[in-house]
Amino acid sequence: xxxxxxxxxxxxxxxxxxxxxxxxxxxxxxxxxxxxxxxxxxxxxxxxxxxxxxxxxxxxxxxxxxxxxxxxxxxxxxxxxxxxxxxxxxxxxxxxxxxxxxxxxxxxxxxxxxxxxxxxxxxxxxxxxxxxxx
Length: 134
Prior knowledge:
Elements: E1 3-4, H1 11-19, E2 31-34, H2 37-50, E3 54-59, H3 64-79, E4 84-89, E5 102-103, E6 105-110, E7 113-119, H4 123-133
Parallel strand pairs: 2-4, 3-4
Antiparallel strand pairs: 1-5, 3-6, 6-7
Helix pairs in contact: 3-4
Region (Disordered): 1-34
Pfam families: Thioredoxin
Domain Thioredoxin: 45-127
């Protein structure tokens, strides 16, 4: 499935986590990357007020599954143009992502409300959820 969230604060892990995952270099549709709790709060507020369907991918730099699904997530942002796509690294937004226990976790929003959650990865499973919520 995914990986349990690691919060043991070792110096090596903190240094690695601070790097975050980088988005692939190709052109992305409606994809934003969030770094920091304030930016995460702004994105959530924007989703609530705009009523635009959205999906947030909560991942981490140390999560192998996250780095495996991220290129597909970026690619899907080009395919599902009516959805807003957001990537948030849990280690860069520690205060606002405390409720994320597994990575990757995908939250789906419609009309400003969270309507679905998907834990773990799988391109086909993610594609089907995106289709359902688009």
